Amino acid sequence: MLKKELGLLILILVIGALTAAINPQFVSQVNLMNLANQIGLFGLISIGVGLVIITGGIELSVGSMFALLGIFFLDMLVNHEIVWPLALVVAILGGVALGGIHGLLVTRLKMQPFVVTLCGLLLYRGIARWYTADSTQGFGYGDSYETLEWLMSGRTYNIPHTFIFLLIVATIMGVVLHRSVYGRYLFAVGKNEEAARFSGIPTKAVITGAYVIAGTLAGLSSVFFVFYTQSVSPSAHGNFYELYAIAAAVLGGCSLRGGEGSIIGIVLGTVLLQVLQNLVNMLGIPSSLNFAVMGAVILLGVLADQQLQRRRQRQLAMASAEARNLAKEGAAGAAV
Amino acid sequence: MSDTLLELRSITKTYPGVKALRGVNLSVKKGEVVGLIGENGAGKSTLMKILGGVVSPSSGSIVIDGVSRLELTVKDAAHAGIAFVHQELNLFENLDVASNIYIGREPRKGGFLNLIDNAALHERVKPILMQLGVDFTPEDSVEELSIAQRQMVEIAKALSMESRIIIMDEPTSSLTLTETENLLRVIADLKAAGVSIIYISHRLSEVQQCADRVVVLRDGRQVGELAKDEITHGAMVRLMIGRDLKSIYVPPNVGVRPGGLELHDLVTTAFPERKVSLHVRRGEILGLAGLVGAGRTSLAQTIFGVEPAPSGRILLDGERLTIGSPRDAIAHGIYLAPEDRKKSGLLLDMSIAENITLPDLKRFSTAMLIDVSREEGVAKEQLRALAIKAPSIATEAVTLSGGNQQKVVLAKWLSMRPKLIILDEPTRGIDVGAKSEIYALMRDLADAGVAILMISSDMEEVIGVSDRIAVMHEGDISGQLERPQFSEHNILTLAVGNPSKEELVAYA
Amino acid sequence: MITSRRALIAMAAAAMAGAMMPQASFAQDKKTLAFVVNVPADFWQIARRGTEKAQKELPKYNIEFYIPGEMSAAAQKRILEDLLAKGVSGVSISPVNPDNSTDILNQVASKAALFTQDADAPKSNRLLYIGTDNVAAGRQAGEQMMKALPNGGKAMVFVGTMDAANARERLQGIKEVIAGSKIEIIDVRTDGGDQAKAKANVEDTLTKYPNIDLLVGLWAYNTPQIYNAVKAAGKESKVKIVGFDEDQQTLKGISEGVIDATVVQQPYEFGYQSMIYLAKYLEGDKSFIPENKQKIIPTKVIDKSNVKDFAAEVRELLKK
User: Fold this and answer.
1) Could you tell me if the ipTM is greater than 0.90?
2) Are residues B36 and B21 in the same domain?
3) Residue A24 at interface with chain C, using a CB cutoff of 8 Å
């Protein structure tokens, strides 16, 4: 399991080293901190989407959630002059609610996750645009929200808060996913929902939980993004971000069939994606090639991973034959 | 009868570290049914893969119609008229019967448009289905067919290719008694029509019934061959396991105790118009027999909360339970080892330890975090207690043999103080040696005061293991038998829905 | 099963259509004039105010405003086809892809009076183009760049995509002016319309070229993202900024002195004049159409000297 993440880390280091060799500014403090900021911004939601993918589902609506929740957050803050802690909590709760709705639609009404979240993608974007009559929402000329702005987009010891938040969230979710009962249930449900149910796991609650976590992180990130772009244009804000999140999760080893993935992998997947975007600028590669670079690296990464998996399968088959031999010889003593 | 179609001569197959076959000989004559038996891992599947052209032998030769060759390709095999009816059926559920039979070989029309000539397709399929005497049409969707009917589709497919040798791998493992009878009749008809059959099965009585000759494999070696008049149950078992098998029934050491599971007028979603009442006492093994589709699995799943009961009462030790999900059932000490181990019993990609602790994970955790050392301790304990043969508790369940997988399923529940365990087809696809271990385990549990409900379609198993038998027919309990009344005849009589007591014959 | 499901979807669709149909479009006795834009943006909110003023002056007409869901020729074509089906009398459109939309534009021109605004489609049978001369606007920006860097320096340009005509024309105008000067444009970074990416592009540029002198934002959101990134990097005093359009933050940046100048169009006039002239044309007056069939609305330079008044004006226009 760890081999996959190690491979990804090596890939990042190699790409990073090559980039730094061509343009040493790549490893300058300023650039690394900018990079950390981007990783922080995109990493949170990749973790959320990754958890949903581990259940065997998919979450396509995060980009639209960013627009909708971002608009509502700004509207509360600027137009309704609600105190910021309340506005922040309401925005996050909005994400919780949307995630909860997705989870319930998927588990209780047995709708396909792709359909549910695709409709979410369309619906939330539409509501955001209708609510603002397609106009960009900004902080206006009025008050500034210094504490909140410092919290969401400031730096401590020059480390962007977005990145610090990502580290905190990744640590918590890492423990939840890899050490807790819930995490084990999540993998079990993703691998084989039926067998999980037959083992007495509350599968519906487990799956809904993953959507709620994704929604919560989407709510939190939507506020981070608001402070990054300083304004939200409802038709363009967060477009395609769900795909970045899915790409990071898949790069990080989450299988779209469910049951596989790790937090470290997802975070490293995000790192790789952001490094790729950054190196396009740092190496002066034409911006138009941005997506092409990303697509090519993801394709090669997943391809390489699959080859490694296949080798592992062969080893597994051998182990299986050995185990059967062992069984036949009746060497019960060797079992322990 | 003398002309030999196919002959395998001293076939050896070596995999890295494993000798799967060591000098096996096998010949098949025209119109002959050859029974091929042996425990799991004896080399039957490898031998069949060689015949199908999927695997090449390491040494030896294959003689077809007098021509000798070193190996077969898949094409050669098909060309030689060798066809398979697999244990796991390979049909397209979304297509109709005719399309399945001619998949990849559809009659075409319309020139470059390459349309399927459906009329011709159905015309070609009709006589084959007639020959088999089946009760479905070429237009029926495979989705709506029973497993037995699907098997007939596979056989029809083999016939449509004008196969001369049909290899049947565990064809009856999912069939009911009547369906099995029907299959054996079809085999007799095919034989009369000059088709040869290689019949692989764990069910020795069927082999005894249909085979002209039996070849026995053990540990990759051919350990014996029985001519028609030598085929007896005892002889086959002796050759397979290399020793005699004792009568499998072990009476309880401790008597039946009060309490256990009581069902009163329980209704299942599968048969909403039927009400089931049943009592499984602590300390006894109650066998639940019946035809496939009689509602046994539905009843088990209702008790376990997979499909909660619309009405009726479930009592455990006199206390009424409300069971809305497997979670509720498990909380009350009611556990199920489901029929389809790989689909519902196990998480194949997870380790033995993770499988064992899954239902009771909270016991191995502090503040919702799993205590890995405690988890491993319990897993090791169970591995030893149940003699699960695996390199370690970290071994993934998918690599285990069927018998050891079933033991892992049971190990899950054993550490959780079961009150009632429901075993649905506990030994399907499991070899003889592991079977007896599982029976012994069931007896130990019963002696320890657990109520055991065992669903089985294997007549030997139902009769040999149960303390009492209940028989189901179309969602009803059609009758219950005490040990002196146990017989295939009596069970079958009740299973086909004839509950009049006069039909039942006491054991002589 | 299938039929009943289809029926259900059809019913739902009918119900939605009923609920969302703009009531005004049923008033068939009035002639309809349509103003079609290319993409949702604040810019068009200002144009909408212009059409609203025209509506007050043209009570005999029914003026409608159309915003496609996404920036695509296909979405626009669908709107145009619907308008033709409804029997529209006059259309003023900002074509997304002018060169390849000639067919549908001519189809509209054959049945109604067709103006283009904002972006021209000279190959089509449009009667008149009302809008900005983006090359001229680019020249104005170029002049502001010269003013900001009298001794020359390195500049970087930021835009959504370079396949848009206005991006190319603005850059062309800039290049015409700075040609021969000591100002060098190093590169153009694109973001595909993603604002977070637009900001990241600026951050990366500031890292890669620590001594960059001037940043230019060609599209409305580029300038505020330049402003944000430059402020975050603490380089307000070192880097000059010239932009386009009148985003709130752009104007804020100018009043703070972080942004040197922005070149603004007058979308209000696009909206107002399109509608007024369409009505005139429909009433038989063709005298206002010049020889070259172009009516250029001049662009204005906003800098520290006039930003206060302009900001107040925009705020007034955008008020809901």
Assistant:
1) no
2) yes
3) no
